[in-house]
Amino acid sequence: MTARLLEVRHLATHFFTRAGVVKAVDDVSFDLEVGEVIGLVGESGSGKSMTGYSLLGLIDPPGRIVQGSIKLKGQELVGLPQEALRKLRGRRIAMVFQDPMTTLNPVLTIADQIHLAINAHERVSTATARQRAVDVLTRVGLPDADRRLDAYPHEFSGGMRQRVAIAIALLHRPDVIIADEPTTALDVSIQAQILAEMKSLVRDLGMALIWISHDLAVVSAMASRILVMYGGRIVESGPTASVLRDPRHHYTRGLLNSLPSRAAPGQPLTQISGLPPSLGALPPGCAFHPRCPRADAICLTAPETTGHERRDWRCHHPLTAVSA
Amino acid sequence: MSEVSRSSEVFVTVEGISRRFVPHVSLGDRIAAALGSPLEQRAVRAVEDVSLSVRRGEVLGLVGESGSGKSTLGRMICGILVPSAGLVRIDGESVMSGGRRPRKTTTRVQMIFQDPYASLDPRMRIGDTIAEGPIAHGLVSKADSLAYVQHWLRRVGLDPDAAPRYPHQFSGGQRQRIAIARALAMKPDVLVCDEPVASLDVSIQAQILNLFLALRQELSLTMLFISHHLGVVRHVSDRVAIMYLGRIVEIGTADAVYTDPQHPYTQALLASVPQLVLEDDKMVSFKPIPGELPSPMAPPPGCHFHLRCTFAQARCRVEPPVLRPAGAQAAACHFAGELQFTR
């Protein structure tokens, strides 16, 4: 029996702008178990990054969490004062961001940045901090860590910077790491290195990982469970292979069919028509209905999450399982 | 694969083309040099002695990671960057004029850029953006330009009444359609597409790829399709060239290169891309290439890939390999055709 680490229930994060309410995250529920890797998939503007930020309490006005609960090992995070959240961030939940060029401070050496990150939660001597920095950098596959500690971020390549960012996230052995498109800005061969590194870290250290990405293949290589987001909601979830092999939501199937690898070379791809909706002006009911081939009148009402066991979807007309 | 207009006639030829970028020497450096300190000249050899040919109606995919020189090569083929050495011909004619300051002399090749947010003038109505080139080159009169613009907007799947709007009123995918319309309105024979779908979401990427496939058939375009995305290139290309640090390491039909790679880099690159996992309990679907991409300012001697190559021998460290036939394609490896890759 695995222990429940994170329990998210009916989470809603809205932004109250002059142009109206932007429902970035709407009624999102999921669980994360100790040592589990889940993938959060969606296109830009689907609310996947905002879900990650909500878990960390990083939502700034005019946005706020309007509803729902986030429980980390039973402790409720929604409504915690800023000071308490600050003590959690980096220590129990850490985040790795997309762009390794902007997440590190350009005027501090790597050693200084790591020392600051350690000091945020505990007092240690400079020598101890340095030793921990070397340990954690070696852990993420940075060769010659002791010498490179005194370098500045601009002396590192993109892949190396992302390793440093991951090392900083690992410093306090958090329960959960949220990785927001951490390999999107990297080259193909470097992406594969980081993916392999993260996989072995998660396995060895028993940390849970939420991997946010638009790339289905990358997510399928990382995560044992997948959550597909569209218009601020989770429209489908389940074990990775099962969701990708037997999608039940028309959006998931459309996304899969859009991949060039799914069609014979030179043949037209089965595309999803239309554009993703703006989170500020979501269509009523199922947000996907204007682009859905199966949509009818009932789709104007929002579908509830249905499903069985660990397989969920939000659709009035789910696809039937091909190989159940 | 379309058989519409692909012929054996060679249409675009690239002959021994190179491009070096020499960093600007500051006044301080020049004074120091005059006083006797060695002047450090670190030229970036972005493209080194590349030759290739594209047949009429063919799509050549150009794959490489950052710093491989793929964009530089594309820009030289399009005539917007002057080569340091070598020549590009389209249908026998040189793309650039001769002389001390060579200029582009043809409108037969046009380019589509990666970022549709940066490649459209935000202060010009899109109709004016599309009509500017054709009017300047006499393809259409000013009076007829609106109808001409509307024709091309319809062709790329946009509302023809959108001509008076500004770029900010469109989404990323729609902007890329505008950029395609602008290129096509010049009635080019050759289209150079530099990462045209890299900044688009998956569902929009599929729409744009379908548009490329359709336009290619209808207009019998010859295309150079540059991308780092192996799956996208496979889908649209007849032939594929793989670049690494300024050199072509492998070139051949898409089928041959993808199913039977002959260069260790091609093989490793293909293996490093995660594949969709469709079976339970089969998680590892990719294998990283060890090591970092070397800086193009200081590429390793001999074969540029030898530092990361599991097959490297002493010879690879000194002697640069040349492209030679291997399998159904050509590869620049001393041991091409002799290597056993583990899958």
List keywords for this structure.
heterodimer, A: 324 residues, alpha/beta, Rossmann fold, 8-stranded mixed sheet, B: 343 residues, 9 helices, 12 strands, 21% strand, globular
Radius of gyration of chain A: 21 Å
Helix content of chain B: 25-40%
How many runs of DSSP E, i.e. beta strands of chain B?
A: 12
Oligomer: heterodimer
Description:
The complex is a heterodimer of chains A (324) and B (343). By secondary structure, chain A is α/β, with parallel strands linked by helices. Chain A is 30% helix and 24% strand. In chain A, the strands form two sheets. In chain A, strands 6-7-8-3-9-10-12-11 form an eight-stranded mixed beta sheet, with helices on both faces. A four-stranded antiparallel beta sheet of chain A has the order 2-1-4-5, covered by helices on one side. In chain A, helix 3 packs across helix 4. Chain A is globular, with a radius of gyration of 21 Å. Chain B is α/β, with parallel strands linked by helices and 343 residues long. Chain B has a domain of 228 residues: P-loop containing nucleotide triphosphate hydrolases (Rossmann fold, 3-Layer(aba) Sandwich), CATH 3.40.50. In chain B, helix 4 packs across helix 5. The longest helix of chain B is centred in the middle third of the chain and has 18 residues. The radius of gyration of chain B is 22 Å and the shape is globular. The chains are: A alpha/beta (324), B alpha/beta (343). At the A-B interface, helix 7, helix 8, helix 9 and helix 10 of A face helix 6, helix 7 and helix 9 of B.
